[in-house]
């Protein structure tokens, strides 16, 4: 019997829509990192939701539409500092905290992000 993915355990697409809505409301208003998000907010949210679906063990929706994620390469054109990564993680922590899931699931979900956030630091 296959174990349920984190994607499924947090509530699937509905949870990721809630997470990305909350997260990008915070990011687009953040004084430090809003400069990194200048294109269409709805497109950014859609891409993030597709990526997170795949990142959390759900269907490979991002790869189906955009190819291999290559996240570091896609972020290289942007100057990203450690402070930016920390700010990004603070926004994500608040967004994860808004989900109607258990504290253990919130912790498990949030703990998937720090390594990736700091991997994007390039300056």
From TrEMBL:
<comment type="similarity">
    <text>Belongs to the truncated hemoglobin family. Group II subfamily.</text>
</comment>
<keyword id="KW-0408">Iron</keyword>
<dbReference type="InterPro" id="IPR009050">
    <property type="entry name" value="Globin-like_sf"/>
</dbReference>
<dbReference type="InterPro" id="IPR012292">
    <property type="entry name" value="Globin/Proto"/>
</dbReference>
<dbReference type="InterPro" id="IPR001486">
    <property type="entry name" value="Hemoglobin_trunc"/>
</dbReference>
<protein>
    <submittedName>
        <fullName>Globin</fullName>
    </submittedName>
</protein>
<keyword id="KW-0479">Metal-binding</keyword>
<dbReference type="Pfam" id="PF01152">
    <property type="entry name" value="Bac_globin"/>
</dbReference>
<keyword id="KW-0349">Heme</keyword>
<dbReference type="InterPro" id="IPR044203">
    <property type="entry name" value="GlbO/GLB3-like"/>
</dbReference>
<keyword id="KW-0813">Transport</keyword>
């Amino acid at each position: 019997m296959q174990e349920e993915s984190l994607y499924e355990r947090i509530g699937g697409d509905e949870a990721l829509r809630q997470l990305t809505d909350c997260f990008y409301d915070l990011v687009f208003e953040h004084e430090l990192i809003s400069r990194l998000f200048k294109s269409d907010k709805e497109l950014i949210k859609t891409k993030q939701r597709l990526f997170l679906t795949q990142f959390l063990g759900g269907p490979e929706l991002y790869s189906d539409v955009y190819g291999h994620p290559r996240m570091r390469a896609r972020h290289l054109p942007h100057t990203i500092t450690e402070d930016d990564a920390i700010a990004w993680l603070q926004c994500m922590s608040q967004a994860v905290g808004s989900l109607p899931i258990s504290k253990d699931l919130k912790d498990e979900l949030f703990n998937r992000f720090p390594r990736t956030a700091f991997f994007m630091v390039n300056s």
